[in-house]
Amino acid sequence: MLQMVILGLVQGLTEFLPVSSTAHLLFAEALLGVPRPGLLVESVLHLGTAAAAAWLFRGDLLNLLRGVWSTFTGHRGAPLDGYRRLGWAVVVASLITGVIGVALASRFEALFGSLRGTALQLIVTGLLLFLVSRRGTRAATDAGPIDGIAVGIAQAASIIPGISRSGATIVSSTWLGMRPEEAARLSFLIAVPSVAGAGLFGLKDYSAGVAAGYTIAQLLVGFVVSVASGALAITWLLQVVRRGRLALFGVYCIVAGLAVALLVTRG
Fold first, then answer.
1. I want to staple 148 with a disulfide (CB 3.0 to 4.6 A). Which of 25, 43, 93, 197 is the partner?
2. Is 0.90 surpassed by the pTM of this model?
3. Of 86, 32, 49, which is closest to residue 230 (Cα–Cα)?
4. Under a CB-based contact definition with an 8 Å cutoff, are residues 250 and 119 in contact?
């Protein structure tokens, strides 16, 4: 049960903070001797973080559904038009991420065996975070399907261990002209279908997880902890972005990546 609490905390915090949750799992496995818990547990924890984002942005998500639906009903209006464009941006980004992920799954999987490569890619994430500026002027609701293509490609790149999903999507959205706070908002909205989809996909290994000894109670504890820690991570990151301090995560990624790369070289 304690293991599930720890795993829930790690998943909830690192899924949304731009520090690459995958890199941290691989580092813990290789350097600390902590084995990955298995696909079922990871899927349950992913669903927990998706639930946290869905709850915090439930108003936006409802408006996105209304906006996309208005495409087929013909309803028009200033607020609805913005959410219709944003809704289709989320749809396009999610589809692109899914297609790239499925098409290149075997190649991405091969990258998980290189600890040094993961460390170097974490450094790349840190450098990307330094590119974030406060010059953007667009709101998230100004995004459209074309923006969804760019953000979807950036999100797909985060399947590579060491490339942060939230970091890649925030940087790409900022490059498209959004303020960092609006870019973070878009990143969280796009995270809901992609993270939830990954979690649901992994539930197919339910029987294997049960055979490994995990109980419903343990899985429920991990889910609840990931929801709570994910909500805290989102709230904190939005405050950090508002203060223009996103580069602090860039420093962390670079230092952590260099430290792991050095340890691997000496080992």
1. 93
2. no
3. 49
4. no
